[in-house]
Please model this.
Amino acid sequence: MKKILGLLILASAMVACNGSNSSSETDGHSGATAVSYIHYPQEKHLANVRQLTWGGDNAEAYFSFDGTMLTFQSNNSAWGLECDHIFAFDWNSDSATLTKPTRISSGLGRTTCAYFLPGDTTILYASTFAGDSACPPVPDRSEGYVWPVYNTFDIYVSNLKGEVIDTLVEGPGYDAEATVSPKGDKIVFTSDRSGDLELYTCDIDGSNVQQITSGLGYDGGAFFSPDGKKLIFRSSRPKTEAEIEHYTSLLKQGLVEPMEMELYTCNVDGTELTKITDLGRANWAPFFHPSGEKVIFSSNHSSDKVYKFNLFMLDLNTNEVEQITYDGVFDAFPMFSPDGKKLVFASNRNNGGDHSTNLFIADWVE
Model:
């Protein structure tokens, strides 16, 4: 969560796209729209791109273990939503009938970071509903762009009917951004229980909680490698006194500023911590390629516009970075299907100029 939906909303608010067979960009501040493809000619690794949602901000779509379903979060007002809630659906159904998929979250509070558990009959997600049934207030961004770190986020388990059946991780402070190992044995999540935003793992039933990272800075958005032995995540690492003061003062207010983040890997026990990018700006939403030797992620490092994010692939052996998507506004939240044949992601492309961020699925071409 990953609290990354904030960047998505920022991007979609700055500039929009309009479906067409031509392409142009605007400065993103005049209210003008940019023309967009559903599939750009340069996107050679994608084929048969298909749009799955229309309207609102839809993001963090993650496959079930068997690859037949997706869970995601949305704030689509047409579905009666005032803030993010969790949904699930069969992605291979006729997308034109996806007027409103099955809601998995309770309908109370704000939610984030849904992920299927082994067996595909239950889904975990984080929610603020135990603290307040209403949507929590969004941060005042008059002094800069920040993400909220809601201290009422805990991690719950729901069945596919939307019934909460377990509280997996709870306690005072922020517990969210949970994902599940492909091996089905462990969960990784972000928590501020130490006083900083660190990664933690636990067993699949929520027991045996272990702190994984300890460096000052925001560690989040973690995923497991295909063999379940490593983690990849995004992190800010303030260094100077001014940076440290800025980070810690914001955190005391329940805020983080996500403008500078790089990607790291480590073993699931926290050893062999390795910084794998040094690109500058915001690099985030990483996910391992099925080979385990490459990583796909979202970044604005190559753009002269802070809101413009595309997907890139990093070869962990050669450090070569390849651009994967080419939308003029925003591409993020990539995930490969368990068999490696599909890629799902969120994008501002083809939204008709209404600022919405939608889900897309494509065949992956090596």
About this structure: The helical segments are 5-14, 241-252. Residues 241-252 form the longest helix (12 residues).
